[in-house]
Amino acid sequence: MERSVRSVPYGHVEEANPLSGKGTMVYYDTFEDVTDGQLEIAVATAKSRSFAKIVLYPLHEETAKRMWKRSFAPYYKREDRLFDWRSERGLEETVTVENWEGKRKKYTPIDAALRHIADIYPSPLFLYVSPETANAFASFSSFEEWIGKLRLILNDPPTDVHPKLEKFRHRWDTLESS
Questions:
Q1: Which residues contact 99 (CB under 8 A, 6 or more apart)?
Q2: Distance (Å, rounded) from C-alpha 94 to C-alpha 17?
Q3: For a disulfide at 91, which of 95, 108, 151, 170, Cβ 3.0-4.6 Å?
Q4: pLDDT at residue 13, as a whole number
Q5: Which sequence spans correspond to the domains of the chain?
Q6: Could you tell me the pTM of the whole model?
Q7: What is the DSSP secondary structure assignment for residue 139, as one 8-state letter?
Q8: For residue 98, which of 63, 32, 53 has the smallest C-alpha distance?
Q9: How far apart are CA 54 and CA 52, in angstroms?
Q10: What is the predicted pLDDT for the residue at 29?
């Protein structure tokens, strides 16, 4: 998480945040194959649903390897791309790139990541994920515990739905259904 020191004159009042709603939308992904257009759609979705915070949460390559059994680009390259995209669009104030997994430098179970997110960011929590990530999340034993504490937004309609994900259909929706 980036921190910067800034000075303001005495009596300064912060302007209203354009994302003045409630809750946090966390884009939980590897960001390996995510295009700039898809990132812009995610930000537009967060603004249209009036979230107070938008968080991009890139997965460490060790975490991604365990979830999908394939190799990924190094974490720092994917993270640098997100920081560059954010600064090119002037979204430093509205979009946060969460680098907790980069600091850990190892496999992070989704439970630990969600606990970290829940501790840091305002609730309610919404995970913005791909159908593949949603199915992988549904396959974990802790899914039923977490789906009661957060909601899912799928960026594409799923073609194959995990049985647990289908069981909790009322806790997720897709961009097309909103």
A1: 1, 58, 79
A2: 8
A3: 95
A4: 72
A5: 24-174
A6: 0.85
A7: T
A8: 53
A9: 7
A10: 95
